[in-house]
Amino acid sequence: MSDDDVAHVHLRLDPDLKQNWEDHLDNSDFNTLSGLIRVAVREKIDSDTNNRSTELGDLIDLIQEQNDLLKENKEDNEKLKRLNEGHKNMNMKILEELVEDEDE
Question: What SS3 state is found at 8?
């Protein structure tokens, strides 16, 4: 890449912060403050992107869990309706038997 292809960004830093970053260079694999900043920015962007993907995955899992619970709820409601219908039928039979017994 030629210098014409590279965008330049200038930062104003607090002198103590700049010194802190330069001190970090001595204990790192970076040769320049620019290299450290480029990697730090790239890692931050990648981290934010991965966090969004994780949040989206968690949201999808929650939606699936909610759908599963709704399905279970619907199935339980259907069972309750059938039980209720069965109780109604039993009550009707008991009433019919009572009426028959009274008629005899």
Answer: coil
